[in-house]
Every structure is written in C-alpha cells, then in structure tokens.
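Before a colleague's protein record goes any further, I have to sign it off. I want your independent view on whether this chain really folds as the tokens say. The record follows directly below this note.
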Amino acid sequence: MNVNYEQNLYKWLSGINEELHFWEEFFKKKSKEDVCGKKRMFTLENQLPDSYCDSVKFLDVGSGPIGRCGFLTNKVKDLQIIAVDPLADAYNYLKRKYYVDNGLDLRYGFVEILDTLFEKNSFDIVHMS
C-alpha cells in the first residue's frame, strides 16, 4: 500500500477552517436542544451488558463538538462519556461562545496518542469515527 501521509495531513489541515465555520454556523442556527443532544439515545446500546449495571466508561474518539453516540441508556445507571478530538480546544471555545453545555467532557487528542492520554483498559467501550 502506498500511503502519502504528508498529502493526507495537508488535506486534513486545509479543511480545518471549513470545519470550524460549519460548526459555528450550526451553533448559531440550531436550538439549544438540537445542539446539546442530551435526549439522544446511546447508539451503541447493543454493546452494553445485557443486565443492568451501575457504570460504563465510554470513549468517543473523533467526537466533534457534541458527540456522535448519544447520552441516554436504560441499561446503565452512570454512562461516563469522555470525548477526544484534535479540534477539541476550538470546539470548546465555540461551545462557550454559544452557551452550549451538553455535559460532554471534550478533550484534545489524536487517536495516535491515546495511549499517552489514558491508562490501559481505562474504558469499557471505545468508538472511533
């Protein structure tokens, strides 16, 4: 496989302004309910234990500013969601600017360095997108 990492990195970097502009416009136009998404069901419900449990730690990698997988589940008392995205600092700024608080713990990081951010076996479920 011939992969040109420099070209892929440049492509990603060149799209950052467009990405941030999209989210700024999204936050401006959407209602707080739409933006926060606190009432969205957890899309990975079938990955949770079949019997009710007290706590599950979930890592959402490449989450964007509002998370991709929802927040509500009937299978877990405490679904602890941590989200990691390389644009987390910019997303957190936009969320503060537009008073968006969905309770998502959004942290800066790249998938390639997750092992330096978290200890081994820190999460029950990891989702990357």
Summary: The two ends are 22 Å apart (CA to CA). The longest strand covers residues 76-85.
